[in-house]
Structures are given as C-alpha cells and as structure tokens.
Specification:
Shape: globular
Order of helices and strands: EEEEEEEEEEEEEEEEEEEEEEEEEEEEEE
Radius of gyration: 20 Å
Strand content: over 45%
CATH topology: Neuraminidase
Structural class: mainly beta
Length: 385
C-alpha cells in the first residue's frame, strides 16, 4: 500500500515531526487591513541550523519571536494549554555535545510555562515518549511511549506523578482526548489491521467502542474528537491509495464521507467550536514518480485547504498551484491560518492567514519548516480553542 505522507519525516512512521527557526524576519510582507479581533499568537516551528528546531510565535501583524531558543535540540509536536503552558517532545539532554555511541534519537516529553528559562522534563524513559497532548482540563498530559516492539498510550495525571498506562499495541498511530476528559480515542495498528478504540478512563481503561474501516485492507491513520463530544473525524488510507476523511456519529454509528473520494487528505484537521465544520487539506490530482535521469522524485498536483460541513458539503478555501496545508481556525473563527509553498516537496514554507473565503491573504513569516503544524494561543481565554 502506498501511504501518501508527502515527504513528511516520521517518528515510528506516523508522527509528523516539526522544526523551528532561530532567525526571524522583521521584513515579512503583510497585506490586508488589521483584524478587529485579537486572535493572539500562532505557535509554530521553523528551521534552525541542520535538524535543530525551535518553537516560535507570530501575531497577525507579522511580529515573530522565539519561545525557547534552541540551537542544538529538536523541540517538536507542541501542544498549548489555556494558560499558555506548552508541552512538547524533544531530544534535549544535559550535555550539548554529539553522542557518537547513540544509534538513534531518543525523545522525552517536556513542559514549559511562561516565565520559565528552560523546560522541565516530564519523562525519562528508555524508549522515546512522543506526541504529548494536554487533557481538556489542562492538567493531565497524554503521550505515546515507543518501546522495541510495542507502543503504549500513557498519561501523567498530575505534575511529578508516575505515568498511567491506558493501552498498548504494535503501533498506535494517533489519539485524541474526549472533550469531557473521560475517554481517549486511539488508533491501534497491527500488521494487516487497524481499528479505532474508545477507551473509558473511568472504567479501568476499558474499550467501550471499536470502529473499523469499511473497506477490507483499509487503515485508519488519525483521529480527532469533535469539541461537542458528539462525533469523531478520522482519516482512512484506502486500498486504492486514496486518503479519505470520515465523520462518525457516536450516538448512531453513522459514517459520512466528508472529502472528495479521489483526493488524498492530509493531517492534521481542525474543528469549528460548534463541531459542524472541519478544516482540512488534501492533495488534488496528485502523482509522483522517480525521474531516472535527474535521480530525484517528481511530484505533480497541488495541496489545497477545504471547509466541509457535517453533511459533506465542501468549499475550497485555497486554489492554484503549490502546497497549502496544516489549516487552523482563528479563535474567533473569522480567519484561517495555513502553511504555503510553491512546490509540494519544498523544504521551507510560509505562514499565512486568510478570511474564510480565501480572498484576503496575509503573509506572516516565510521560514517555516515543512513538517510544522499550527496552533493558536489567544491572549483572551474566552477565544482560546
């Protein structure tokens, strides 16, 4: 099966790795009038020297600043709490030199709070701990622990507490908290099969719902719980190589195909606060092949951003050639932020925002890493997502 991740490096083959940039540009071009709504800051990652990464923030006026200065480390996969704390995975360690005896990178989960000079390590495991997410109350932190032949879904119930194991599988491709914090949805994968499990934390982590792909040989690759708790959105990699977005109603078990069946939906997606609309990006008319003469991969087609409602009515937000990805609603849902590049396989993207119709574009920053995702951190708690 040809899984179309589009030049995205992965940890354990399924996590989007994120990168950051130390140098920030005061000369980024912007256009359009200033917003009447204070949307706060966009948290993203941009490139620095070599593979090192750095967390940064940008506002809609194009003011960009580093959150943590990082010349040597890869600070990846950030998640932001309502109070501004950030949890992320990193290969940070006490010594700054290169360990020639180390065969592979080992990541741990770190927590940073506004005002801290350096982050605090939350894990110190023999394997890598990855993909941390705050629980909805902002206290518990769930993450994946990658061992030699298993992956475990765990969470830390409070600061300085020992991790609690929820489930394990040969691989866990993604997970998502329920809005009330009582359940975790996890994509469990073993060779030849995958299913989406709903695990009840108040019933001893019991699997209360199991969702499998409709088509034989299809693999669920990601999951996201709606803000209202009524539905799940998940992406399926189908036997015909298409990647399709579905909505699953928890009360009825009804599934709705939301994306164009011929497009290849990319992670991540973003929900509107009322749970009625989803933002996603997808490869359109995509193909790739290896050019023997040039000895390089050639990508054709484009990646576009779409809005889709619960009935599957789609509206394209972006158009034209290039890569438009990682879309997120602003806290007031008046604008959309996304990442753009002229080429699908570009190694540097620009951070942009636009209105819901895609007609008023602003360029905020032009040195974002291609693996980066976006998250809004509003200065107004009522506007935080």
């Amino acid at each position: 099966m040809n899984v179309k991740w589009l030049s995205i490096e992965s940890v354990k083959g399924h996590l989007l790795l994120l990168s950051a940039m130390l140098i920030f540009s005061a000369g980024c071009q912007t256009s359009g009038p200033s917003s009447a709504v204070d949307n706060g800051s966009l948290i993203f990652l941009a490139q620095t020297l070599g593979p090192a990464t750095q967390l940064q923030r940008a506002d809609e006026q194009g003011d960009v600043s580093p959150i943590l200065v990082s010349q040597n480390w890869r600070d990846l996969h950030p998640d932001v709490a309502d109070d501004g704390r950030i949890v992320f995975m990193s290969n940070r360690r006490p010594q700054s030199g290169i360990d020639l005896s180390q065969r592979r990178e080992r990541f741990q989960v770190f927590l940073w709070a506004p005002g801290d000079e350096s982050p605090t390590a939350l894990t110190e495991s023999a394997g890598s701990t990855m993909a941390p997410q705050f629980g909805p109350e902002g206290q518990r932190i769930a993450f994946l622990l990658a061992e030699s032949n298993r992956t475990r879904l765990q969470y830390v119930p409070e600061a300085n507490a020992e991790p609690v194991s929820v489930t394990s599988a040969r691989d866990i491709l993604d997970f998502s908290w329920s809005p009330d914090g009582t359940q975790l949805a996890a994509v469990l994968f073993s060779p030849g099969q995958s299913h989406l499990a709903l695990l009840d934390l108040e019933q001893g982590n019991r699997e209360v719902v199991a969702i499998t792909p409709e088509a034989a040989g299809a693999v669920i690759t990601s999951v996201s719980w709606s803000p209202t708790g009524e539905a799940l959105a998940y992406i399926v990699n189908s036997p015909d190589d298409a990647r399709r977005l579905y909505r699953y109603e928890l009360a009825t078990g009804e599934r709705t195909l939301l994306s164009d069946p011929d497009a290849d939906v990319q992670e991540p997606i973003d929900w509107s606060d009322d749970g009625d609309t989803i933002l996603y990006s997808a490869l359109v008319d995509f193909e790739f092949f290896y050019d023997e003469k040039k000895r390089e991969k050639v990508y054709r087609g484009s990646m576009q951003v779409f809005r889709v409602d619960e009935q599957g009515h789609r509206q394209a937000v972006t158009s034209g050639p290039g890569r438009h990805g990682a879309p997120v609603f602003s806290p007031g849902e008046e604008r959309i932020a996304y990442l753009y590049a002229e080429q699908l396989d570009a190694r540097r993207l620009s951070l942009r925002t636009t209105n819901l119709e895609g007609t008023e574009e602003r360029v905020l920053y032009d040195r974002v890493a291609p693996e980066s995702t976006l998250q809004w951190s509003s200065t107004n708690p009522k506007n935080r997502r």
